[in-house]
Design a protein that fits this description.
The structure is a single chain. The protein is mostly helical and 147 residues long. It has one domain (6-24, 33-144). Helices cover 71% and strands 0% of the residues. The chain has five helices and no strands. The longest helix is centred in the last third of the chain and has 23 residues, at 122-144.
Length: 147
């Protein structure tokens, strides 16, 4: 993988498909309970940075797989995390509870963070941590407020 990560775009596609379907079917049904503008902006920065960094490798910031058979581990673990994400989407489709909030915020964070570690890709690790902290916090605030 040079500047473009084909595996990353496949992973992003898998985790975005249920989100797009949900957004189309439930147009306008999600309200963000978090009124902290800084937290919301930080989450969006982390989210979109992770999207971009999963697909595009920045030269000199990305060091590729750092041990033998790392590609196999990368694909296996990310495949399992994506499968778990899809299962949680299917199981929790009509729910608004902590299980849904936590599973659908922790799993993508794990995907981004694991990918960053496997690729020794420091910017992806940093933005995955930012995204994870903000996204999990916002998800919990939303479920705790009853939205």
């Amino acid at each position: 993988m040079y500047w473009f990560n084909y595996y990353g775009i496949a992973i992003m596609s898998v985790i975005m498909i249920p989100n797009i379907i949900y957004a189309v079917k439930r147009r306008g049904s999600f309200e963000n309970a978090c009124k902290n503008k800084g937290l919301n902006i930080a989450e969006q920065i982390g989210r979109y940075a992770c999207f971009v960094l999963m697909i595009f490798n920045i030269p000199y910031a990305y060091f590729n797989f750092w041990f033998g058979h790392a590609l196999t581990v990368y694909l296996s673990v990310n495949g399992a995390l994506c499968l778990a994400y899809l299962i949680f989407w299917a199981v929790c489709w009509n729910k608004k509870d902590k299980l849904k909030a936590l599973s659908l915020s922790i799993l993508p964070t794990c995907i981004f963070l694991f990918s960053g570690v496997m690729l020794a890709y420091i910017p992806l690790i940093v933005f995955a941590v930012l995204f994870g902290i903000c996204h999990i916090t916002i998800s919990l605030l939303s479920v705790n407020s009853g939205l």
